[in-house]
Amino acid sequence: MSLLQRTKRLLHLYRFSPKKRLGQNFVVDTDLLQRLIGYGALAQDDVVLEVGAGLGFLTRFISSGCKKVISVEVDRELMKLLGEQLHDLQNVDLIEGDILKVSIPQFNKVISTPPYSISSLLLFWLLELKFDCAVLTFQKEFAERLVASVGSRSYGRLTVTAYYRAEIELLEYVSREMFYPPPDVDSAIVRLRPRASPFEVEDEEVFLDLVRTLFTQRNKKVRNSIIPFLQKRGLKKRRAVEVAEFLVFHEKRARKLAPEDFGALSNEIIRNL
User: Fold this and answer.
1) Which residue of 7, 91, 219, 242 shows the fewest CB atoms closer than 10 Å?
2) Per residue in 92-121, is it b (16+ CB within 10 Å) or e — as a string?
């Protein structure tokens, strides 16, 4: 029986209809599940977090290659299905709730096909934690933004802040036909490894706020878009204009600044404040 047939059978058996608002599109390609496992390079002592357990297919694959799986599912109806379908797996901990709100035990890897509606929140939640690597499926456009080159249409706040926190690889594209029901977009598999910052930042809060501010006006020159930022940080308008005129990269546009440039710019602002 194919994975698609098993999916339809389980949905019929449990009288369950996938909820679009929860991004419930289940992987129905066995090869894709195996590649996700391969990209995670599982070892027998790994504790793996799975966000959005779905019908439990990926959960079962993961459990065969690691010490423990922590599988989080927000849908109460699916929790009943998972409890019955995975009851024979002694190394799977099922947790009901929102991944961004519930308490999660320590883990060292992530392998997951999470709902795309939480992609950004999930990514930055993860990057505040310590772990070895994460293999995730994201919407194609979102994944391309993570690894976009400086100055490209996809390059933006997400690219810079993600680069600051982690090494990110776009491993492969995934057709929407590998999911049931098929989502409206194609997907991509991304692997990320947290790391120390690749460049010096004197004040992380200022750096991240600067990135957010400048990308709201990505096509403006730095000297024009940064004045309100300087005023918010306590400078009078006249002084803010003076500082903006002589800042490093003041003639560049935000979309042309490399992540390291944002770091240098934020450090210079700290010194001027």
Assistant:
1) 219
2) bebbbeebeeeebeebbbbbbbbbbebbbe
The CATH number of residue 249's host domain is: 1.10.8.100
- Which two structure tokens, joined as six digits, stand for 240? 């803010």
Number of domains in the chain: 2
Torsion of CA 188, 60, 19, 98, to 10 degrees: -90
The residues facing 47 across adjacent strands are 68
- What is the maximum alpha-carbon separation in the chain? 72
pLDDT of 273 over the 80 cut: no
Of 192, 92, 221, nearest to 132 by C-alpha is 192
Q: Which range of residues forms the domain containing residue 99? A: 3-194
pTM: 0.92
Helix, strand, coil tally for the chain in percent (to 5): 45, 20, 35
Look at strands 133-139 and 187-194 and give their pairing.
antiparallel
Q: How far apart are CA 205 and CA 225, in angstroms?
A: 18
Last residue of a domain, one of 194, 228, 257: 194
What pLDDT is stored for residue 266 in this prediction?
Answer: 95
Give the pLDDT confidence of 85-139 residue by residue, as tens digits: 999 999 999 999 999 999 999 999 999 999 999 999 999 999 999 999 999 999 9
For residues 64 and 62, give the distance between their C-alpha atoms in angstroms, rounded to a whole number: 5
**Residue where a domain terminates, one of 194, 222, 245:** 194
Confidence of residue 218 (pLDDT cuts 50, 70, 90): very high
Measured CA to CA, the distance from residue 118 to residue 71 in angstroms comes to 16
C-beta atoms surrounding 82 within 10 Å: 21
